[in-house]
Amino acid sequence: MTLLQVSQVGIERGDRQLLREVSLSVCAGEIWQLVGVNGVGKTSLLRALAGLARLGVAGDIQRHASVLYLGHASALKLSLSALDNLRCHPACDVMASRERITSALEKVSLAGYEDRPVGALSAGQQRRVALARLLLSEASLWLLDEPFTALDAAGCDWLEARIREHVQAGGATVFTSHQPSRFGALQHDLNLAQHVA
């Protein structure tokens, strides 16, 4: 089953053409990595795939599944607690209960941090709060921008396992990362250097 179909997409930023003629078909059970040097347009393309950028986007993008987008920035309000950030964030499909959020935070090794302001947490802990959204969403298509950033080895292992579980259950993931591949033959790469305008 195709969850995302991309045909002949071009990306402009300002008056600069970043990418051209990008085509991609993402099916259930697949992991795709957008590969390229800094500034090539990985984040711009990922935002376009999520429907968050329409200006400067040409071509056809069809989403056939619900989408969860997590950006490079964690999109957390530092003055709010981890609980309130996860309760209020629009990336979650539904307003999650305190019990579900507490369980999600426990699974990302943040048990006991529910009511602590996110601004008092380390960068790695803040990233874990953001990644707890993966456990609260029912979206089939995950679009993740640098999801491994700021995580320690245990956090990277947890995220890898969660992505594997997601695709094994019929979901799909498209992500960017500057780290070596963690998914072996399961991963497909889209090299954006081949689409630089």
* Count of extended strands: 8
Query: Judging from the principal axes of the Cα atoms, what is the shape?
Result: globular
What is the third-level CATH name, the topology of the largest domain?
Answer: Rossmann fold
Radius of gyration using CA atoms only: 17 Å
Structural class: alpha/beta
CATH architecture assignment name of the largest domain? 3-Layer(aba) Sandwich
Which runs of at least 5 residues are low in confidence (pLDDT < 50)? none
Strand order of the largest sheet: 5-6-7-3-8
- Tally of contiguous helical segments: 6
Distance between the termini: 31 Å
Number of domains: 2
* Sheet having the most strands: 5 strands, parallel
**Share in β-strands:** 25-35%
The CATH superfamily name of the largest domain is: P-loop containing nucleotide triphosphate hydrolases
Return the average pLDDT rounded to an integer: 93
Helix content: 25-40%
CATH class of the largest domain: Alpha Beta
Order of helices and strands: EEEHEEHHHHEHEE
